[in-house]
Amino acid sequence: MKHSLKLTVALIATCLTSLVFAADATTSMRGIDVGAASPAPEIKDYAGKRPGTEEPVARTFSTQPPVIPHAVQNFDEINLEENQCMDCHSAANYQKKKAPKVGDSHFIDREGKKHAEATGGRYNCVQCHVPQVDAPPLVDNTFKGDAVKKAVKKN
Fold first, then answer.
1. C-alpha 72: how far from its chain's center?
2. Which of 13, 80, 129, 134 is deepest in the core (most CB within 10 A)?
3. 115-126: pLDDT as tens digits
4. Sign of the dihedral defined by the CA atoms of residues 31, 34, 37, 38, in that order
5. Which residues contact 98 (CB under 8 A, 6 or more apart)?
6. Helix, strand or coil for residue 27?
């Protein structure tokens, strides 16, 4: 009887102790309470200014989609009726606007059939092509990419 009473008291004490530890607020790697709402990030400015005033950003590997070197905050949304990117980058306008032309791959559908307009799967430009924001990197990175490797081989 004494033995089972001691065991019960020890079990209750263990449970209460674990509740005390569980009551501590868990924090994330960012140092905030996990249960708290995440604060909105500060709004960053785009690295480029008006379209056509910035040099293209060099790609770091051969299959990388080109990044957008200009601001896009005044652009309308891309929807079924309109894609403001095509005002400058379409096959019909790119030479007049002195802008890079949409890649030929954007006119080929899944079945390999070529179309006159960009296919539906390639119509949402910012799905792959991203505008650049003037912000420090979130983590340290030593990635150099293909461009640096090619430059080293030439020297």
1. 15
2. 129
3. 888 888 888 888
4. positive
5. 52
6. strand
